[in-house]
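Sample pair:
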Amino acid sequence: MQCKAFKNSGEQCNRKTKKGQKYCWQHKDQVDQGGRPKKYTSVKQMEKDIKKYFQSCIKKIKDPETGEITYKQIRPFTITGLALALNMDRRTLLNYEKDDKFFPTIKKAKLKCENFAEEQLFKSGTVSGVIFNLKNNYGWKDKQEIDHKGDLEIDVTLEDE
């Protein structure tokens, strides 16, 4: 049977499918494979639930004397924590990023988690976190300089067997 998917050019895919399947190996992940339906079909609902997760990681504190409101991070922003808050596993959450409709939402949430983790590197009180960040995100490298000045003598002794 011929694949039911369409190429980016608009032409129907001309590959053959495995017996009992509607889509070829290349298009099988781009279509609904049956099984459990996606939890989110609405980007707005997902964004609302993601916002709730990030808010749950921060505690609002009101000073009883001044009435001043401050915010305290009570839990780190993590991808796994976000997935749990959305009632799914980490891999399922990341799979939503493959859907063009959800891509910007997931990318922004991941970026927020990454930013939190990166900021923690600078709060440690040591430079190791900063060095780690510079090496991994900005292409910095450790550099060793070796002084090759001076005389070099090599004694070679050849023996006849």
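The mean pLDDT is 84.
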